[in-house]
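Problem 12. The chain below contains 101 residues. Write out its predicted structure in token notation.
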Amino acid sequence: MARVVPLSLQGVLWSKATSKLDCQRDKNYIIHQILSYGTWEHIRWLFDTYGRDEIKNIFLHYPAKNYTEKTFHFFGNVVLGIMPGSIDIKDYVKTLPRVIE
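Solution.
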């Protein structure tokens, strides 16, 4: 997976220049940012680059508190097919407090 992160993604990958992002090393950040803030064109690039299984794996095992509740349910349940209630929404939705133990 030696794909270059296109400049057209800079608007959703704002914390670092796309020319300095590595598709493999930065995939958690790239996947969550695009799912949270990307357009359909960005999301198409994401699925072409990583595939559904890798995106689902990152979504499940490396949660990011980036999502609105609607976006979380759409990508988690509808697009990725994750059963509702099988993951803790508080680890994903930015408006819900996370319990730190």
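Discussion. The mean pLDDT is 90. Students who got a different answer should revisit the alignment rule from Section 12.3.
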